[in-house]
């Protein structure tokens, strides 16, 4: 697998973009985790990575999406974003995942890439806006990797995302491949699509399209219309884990998850303080589906380190999760989670009534599988999990 992946990178990627990714993404990412580990020893709280929702606007209306797109349009003030990135640079944090809504509907996104050429940005996108002009802009920037959301073959994907989305995203991938841009696929695994997205044929399709990595997520029933019929059973999650290991050994593409450590134990990045989420109103939240916060980027004169490090809410959330599960409290303990949120007098930044939505949720299985842990069985991924993938090495 490794020689084939190296050959793909050497023959398909722009040498300039590959070199920048190796330095800004891989090397600086490892340094960010190292700095995070040092902060842990000092009992300081500041993540090496951040999710940043630039806007809640979107050109799609996907089933099961937690982002409210019908009300007031919000755009993260550029000053707030610069506060975050500049505070991060002082702590060796140079990697930011930009999402929305649809991040490419944020009119000044290209200025962000230019203002911070020493940072690396991942954009989680539906892939509908990769015109020839935008692909050219991405290549010129050189510090961006698009992560395109695809949730199965055409029928399943378009059932959730809308008619014609699969084919449109496919055309965008062809343009990205032609330009030699590093991009990946984000697939939400559901109870309906698991048997098709965790297959050789599915992975091979995106290898042929030029994707260098694929990132799997487990579906969470959140939002005004949560669609619980997409939820996965415990048996399906165990099968997903088994298939991940098999696919990793077979295909020349990096297969990522943020759910399990190298030892196969469940893992929550927010509970470890490895990554928090910033909403389009500048709210600092535990993770993307949890749009609750007490602090904003503009607090403390824009000193984001001070704001996060002194946050009783974010520190309390870590303890709340660790006392209950190694997995996802959204799935396992939704009512207790809302009690915790209310006890900290947080603000709901969803622009809906997220409290009521979570109160009505039914506890479900997450990736925490006590007694059924399956360790990584391939040395490459053992190494990557401990040192690169979302700072897994921070677990020790």
UniProtKB/TrEMBL annotation:
<keyword id="KW-0949">S-adenosyl-L-methionine</keyword>
<keyword id="KW-0411">Iron-sulfur</keyword>
<dbReference type="GO" id="GO:0051536">
    <property type="term" value="F:iron-sulfur cluster binding"/>
</dbReference>
<keyword id="KW-0479">Metal-binding</keyword>
<dbReference type="Pfam" id="PF04055">
    <property type="entry name" value="Radical_SAM"/>
</dbReference>
<dbReference type="GO" id="GO:0046872">
    <property type="term" value="F:metal ion binding"/>
</dbReference>
<dbReference type="InterPro" id="IPR013785">
    <property type="entry name" value="Aldolase_TIM"/>
</dbReference>
<feature type="domain" description="Radical SAM core">
    <location>
        <begin position="44"/>
        <end position="254"/>
    </location>
</feature>
<protein>
    <recommendedName>
        <fullName>Radical SAM core domain-containing protein</fullName>
    </recommendedName>
</protein>
<keyword id="KW-0408">Iron</keyword>
<dbReference type="InterPro" id="IPR058240">
    <property type="entry name" value="rSAM_sf"/>
</dbReference>
<dbReference type="InterPro" id="IPR007197">
    <property type="entry name" value="rSAM"/>
</dbReference>
<dbReference type="GO" id="GO:0003824">
    <property type="term" value="F:catalytic activity"/>
</dbReference>
């Amino acid at each position: 697998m490794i020689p084939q992946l190296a050959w793909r990178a050497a023959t398909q990627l722009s040498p300039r973009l590959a070199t920048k990714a190796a330095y800004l993404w891989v090397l600086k990412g490892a340094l960010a985790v190292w700095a995070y580990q040092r902060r842990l020893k000092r009992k300081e709280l500041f993540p090496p990575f951040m999710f940043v929702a630039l806007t809640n606007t979107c050109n799609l209306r996907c089933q099961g999406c937690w982002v409210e797109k019908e009300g007031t349009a919000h755009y993260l003030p550029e000053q707030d974003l610069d506060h975050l990135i500049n505070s991060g640079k002082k702590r060796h944090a140079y990697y930011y995942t930009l999402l929305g809504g649809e991040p490419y509907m944020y009119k000044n996104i290209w200025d962000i890439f230019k203002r911070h050429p020493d940072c690396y940005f991942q954009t989680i996108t539906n892939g509908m806006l990769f015109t020839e002009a935008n692909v050219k802009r991405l290549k010129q920037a050189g510090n961006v990797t698009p992560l395109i959301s695809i949730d199965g073959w055409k029928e399943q994907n378009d059932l959730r995302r809308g008619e014609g989305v699969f084919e449109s995203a496919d055309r965008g991938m062809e343009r990205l491949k032609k330009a030699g841009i590093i991009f990946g696929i984000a697939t939400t695994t559901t109870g309906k699509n698991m048997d098709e997205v965790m297959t050789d044929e599915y992975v091979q399709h995106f290898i042929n399209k030029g994707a260098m990595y694929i990132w799997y997520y487990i579906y969470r029933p959140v939002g005004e219309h949560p669609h619980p019929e997409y939820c996965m059973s415990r048996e399906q999650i165990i099968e997903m884990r088994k298939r991940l290991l098999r696919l990793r050994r077979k295909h020349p593409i990096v297969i990522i998850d943020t759910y399990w450590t190298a030892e196969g134990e469940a893992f929550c990045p927010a509970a470890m303080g490895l990554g928090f989420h910033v909403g389009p109103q500048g709210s600092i939240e535990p993770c993307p589906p949890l749009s609750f916060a007490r602090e904003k980027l503009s607090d403390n004169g824009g000193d984001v380190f001070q704001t996060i490090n002194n946050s009783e809410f974010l520190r309390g959330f870590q303890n709340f999760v660790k006392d209950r599960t190694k997995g996802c409290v959204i799935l396992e303990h939704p009512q207790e989670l809302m009690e915790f949120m209310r006890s900290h007098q947080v603000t709901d930044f969803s622009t809906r009534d997220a409290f009521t939505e979570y109160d009505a949720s039914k506890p479900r299985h997450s990736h925490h599988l006590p007694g059924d842990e399956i360790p990584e069985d391939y040395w490459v991924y053992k190494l990557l999990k401990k040192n690169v993938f979302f700072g897994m090495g921070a677990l020790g």
